[in-house]
Amino acid sequence: MAAGPWGWGPAALALLLALLLALLLGGARLLRRRYAADGARASLWGRAAARADGVRVLLVTAHPDDEAMFFAPTVLGLGRAGARAAVLCCSAGNYYNQGEIRKKELEQSCFLLGIPASDVTVLDHRDLPDNPAVEWDTQLLAAFVLKHIEANNINLVVTFDAGGVSGHANHISLYAALRYLHSERKLPEGCRVLLLESVNLFRKYISVLDVPVSCLLPTDALFILTEEETEQARRAMRCHRSQLLWFRHIYMLFSRYMMINSLRLL
Question: What is the pTM of this model?
Answer without folding.
Answer: 0.88
